[in-house]
Amino acid sequence: PDYILCEPATRDPLVKSLRKAIKSFYGENPKESKDFGRIINDRQFKRLSELLSEDCGKIVIGGEIDEKERYISPTVMIDPNPESALIKDEIFGPILPIVEISRIDKAIDYVNARDKPLALYLFSNNKKLINRVVTQTSSGAFIANDTLMHSSVPELPFGGIGPSGSGSYHGYFSFENFSHKKATMIKSLGMEAINNVRYPPYSEGKLKILRRVMDKDVPKPATVGGTLLKLAAAGAAAAGAIYYYSPNTWNQIMGLLRSK
């Protein structure tokens, strides 16, 4: 995660629990644990090391680094500088800042004031609170009382929103995301005579015809079949409108049809 939001009274017990969990996972010295990884390259190591400065926040757990091994210990920071890269950027490393928030409405405002997260995790048994956070925030995914597990379910779409990503994949969603829906329309050249109304020279009569056919108050059809029916009706309406509003155009069309 990029940060944790918690109430002031929860912070110290949370830090204590995090310290206990780190020890449970990796022992007294995470550097010696075969289960704790290293930073992937020098550039990322340098970027993450800079986040451990006093300008970014106060380290309460970890903070040890070894440039040769590209090792950064599991690190927890409190009182983070809201203007620092620690808070503004995605971390992608073993550094976790804790931000104190007094009320849930302020927590929601905090999330919404920043780039949309790839995932948002809420720990609560209050169903009304869970529903409130789901509906009042925007994120690539949402999980209550767990982390990461949505990415392991093929039936769920995985992806970000806004700066955290575009589109989603997994199962059928991968097919949808990486497939291109090509619009295809095939019509008869015999209708070209009616199309005369959309070509120059333009006139008030043609404008009236187009306005009648493209009436915005007509409900949009929900299916392709409905669209075709609407187009057929529009064609009939256009023919009637041409006959009524623009007799000269009608005569030109009829002349073209007779010539064929």
From TrEMBL:
Which Pfam family, giving just one, matches this sequence?
Aldedh
Keyword terms, alphabetized: Oxidoreductase
**May I have one GO cellular component term?**
cytoplasm
Per the UniProt entry, what is one GO biological process?
aldehyde metabolic process
* All residue ranges annotated as the Aldehyde dehydrogenase domain in the record: 7-182
InterPro entries (UniProt xref): Ald_DH/histidinol_DH, Ald_DH_C, Ald_DH_N, Aldehyde_DH_dom, Aldehyde_DH_NAD(P)
Q: Which residues form a coiled coil?
A: none
Family to which this protein belongs? Belongs to the aldehyde dehydrogenase family.
Identification of the protein by name: Aldehyde dehydrogenase family 3 member B1-like
